[in-house]
Amino acid sequence: MTEMRLTALQLNELELMRAGAYGHALRYELPDKGPHHATLLFPGAFEDVSLTLLDTEATPVARVRVLERHADARGTWLGGLVEVTREPARPTFPELRPSSTMAPVSDATLLLGRRSGKLDGTVIAIDSGDAHALAQTVRGLRTDGLDLRVLPEPAALHVSGADRTELLEHLASVVFASNVRVIRGEQKAPGDGVVVLFTGLSGSGKSTIARQVTRQLRAETNQRVTLLDGDEVRAMLSSGLGFSREDRELNVRRIGWVASQISAHGGIAICAPIAPYESMRQEVREMAERAGRFILVHVATSLEECEARDRKGLYAKARAGQIAEFTGISDPYEEPLDADVRVGASGESAESSAAAVVATIVGSSEAAYII
């Protein structure tokens, strides 16, 4: 049976489903059914008839009987009935969440972001997957003696932009209050940390540029800078993983999680895996932006140039069929369309590429980044 480990926001979505926020049926729908439905995106091809859902600790908590599916560039959307097989771990502030026994109210304020002014009555805070940030928000609101609720933010990967705000407002009105008004608080990231994710083909120069960026940042900032290079992470953090799509995604997910922890404590994490899949880069972005800033760097060195370098002989082996699922040859590289910095396409040096990346990190930051 195929398994899938849910993110914090996907667990939130399951929690909302069980609380009746999407109707009486426990069911995932395909994204074309509209924003007010729970959806599930499997990262890759899916041909099985059922899927076991794991929580963030890899414990099986539910099973999906797959009735329909739709594949696109991001993976496979699954529709089907959900059976909860085990209670997930208790979330933060369970007494304030939709599954609690608190009676609904007539009016409430949905707070998006951090509070920036005086509030009264019933206030709904958003759980965006960052327990520390949620605890800070709840603690501050409790100090004012407000009546509190906590709305789990769903992954809702089929909804973006202003539609996400509308979805949160709709969910709040279903589970907490008949009339909900939205207030946008401070949207500033909760911390000063930064995750910088380099992506590019093998041999593109990611590691060389990342090391140069690390050296420059250590000289120009007062924050701790940690380099999570692809090869070193493979040897330590991801030892034992292969190069299937599932293992590659797990490798990038691990890197993203560690980088987000570094960022949450005010540091700068420089990550240099290949990260060939858009869905995983987006997952890392979501993890990182809960803690601080995220910068995506595309090292866009051409495949021809990477093959010409080929110091390890990997491309030659891949062309000869000796390495399966090699990015750029027998496995796809999905070029990012949302990169904050793009270097390497014009053959510029590692030094000038690093300078462009550092300028993006330091130039758009607050003064706290500069010594």
Explain what this protein looks like in three dimensions.
- With 371 residues, the chain is an alpha/beta fold.
- The chain has three domains: 2-84, Sulfate adenylyltransferase, CATH 3.10.400; 94-184, no CATH class; 194-369, Rossmann fold (3-Layer(aba) Sandwich), CATH 3.40.50.300.
- 32% of the residues lie in helices and 25% in strands.
- Strands 1, 2, 3, 4, 5 and 6 form a six-stranded mixed sheet that branches.
- Helix 2 links the parallel strand 8 (122-127) and strand 9.
- The radius of gyration is 22 Å and the shape is globular.
- The N and C termini lie far apart (53 Å).
Please sum up the structure shown:
With 371 residues, the chain is α/β, with parallel strands linked by helices. It has ten helices and 15 strands.
